[in-house]
Design goal:
With about 160 residues, this protein is mainly alpha-helical. α1 packs across α2, α1 packs across α4 and α3 packs across α5. It has one domain. The chain starts with a helix and ends with a helix. Keywords: Membrane, Transmembrane, Transmembrane helix.
């Protein structure tokens, strides 16, 4: 349990660091994520015996997943609650699905995306509105595309 708390806190810190580098210091999401992953990965690569083996193997994975969550766009109004809850949910998902995703590329990114999307869906689900709001947006998008095609044919 203590190991999991350490992994989850590393993921939360990586999320906030990436978000701060991305938004406040205007470094961009990819550069912010890569910088933090490089520093943490380099530290555990050059000093593998400094911490026990379980930390040396797992902390970089949780940090990289946390940086993926921290890459969220500034145009999305995301709360600090979401920035805390998403990496914790990511840690839980990664902890229980790491054996399922063994050998599959993109497991960290997929798990981070699932955690972030679940967290971003909370306001939509908890309101007394219909959950089909996303479908309405997609319908409006496709209708606009259809109108553009019709206008192009007339011209």
């Amino acid at each position: 349990m203590i190991d999991f708390l350490i992994f989850a806190s590393a993921s939360v810190m990586a999320t906030f660091l990436t978000f701060a580098l991305n938004i406040r210091f205007k470094q961009g999401p990819v550069r912010s994520s890569a910088l933090i992953a490089l520093i943490v990965g380099g530290f555990f690569y050059f000093f593998p015996t400094l911490l026990p083996e379980i930390y040396t193997k797992n902390i970089p994975l949780y940090v990289i997943g946390g940086t993926f969550i921290g890459m969220v766009s500034s145009s999305i109004n995301i709360s600090y609650f979401s920035l805390i809850f998403s990496p914790i949910l990511f840690s839980v998902l990664l902890h229980y699905t790491s054996k399922v995703f063994n050998g599959f590329g993109g497991a960290l990114g997929t798990t981070a995306c699932i955690a972030l999307m679940c967290t971003m869906a909370f306001p939509i689900i908890t309101k007394h509105k219909k959950v089909t709001y996303g479908y309405r947006i997609l319908r409006m998008f496709f209708l606009k595309q259809k109108r553009k095609r019709i206008i192009k044919r007339k011209v």
